[in-house]
Amino acid sequence: MSGIAAIGESDRVRGFALAGVSVAAADEPGAARAAWRALPAEVALVILTPAAQAAIGGELADGGRRLCVVMPA
After folding, report:
1. Which DSSP symbol is given to 71?
2. pLDDT > 70: what percent of the chain?
């Protein structure tokens, strides 16, 4: 079964946990990059805040078969 993860500022992603999403609070750019790199292989969908997307940057292209979506600002 494929999983879903959310990465970004804690106040923007914590609610996703109520729906069973694996949440990685990342209030600093380094934390967002670390959370991205630590995602388990079974995660197929990643929800990012705009700040997390900016922090992860070019690594998104190397996401493999993951679908990444960015929340509106």
Report:
1. -
2. 96
Dihedral of the CA atoms 31, 37, 43, 47 (nearest 10)?
Answer: 40
Q: In angstroms, rounded to a whole number, what is the distance separating the alpha carbons of residues 14 and 12? A: 6
Block residue for tokens 């960015």? 70
- Among 41, 61, 57, which Cα is nearest to 22's? 41
Q: Comparing C-alpha atoms, which of 8, 4, 24 is closest to residue 67?
A: 4
| DSSP codes joined into one string, 27-58 | -SHHHHHHHHHT--TTEEEEEE-HHHHHHHGG
| Prediction pTM value | 0.92
As a whole number, mean pLDDT of residues 26-41 equals 95
Q: Which CATH number is 3-70 given?
A: 3.40.50.10580
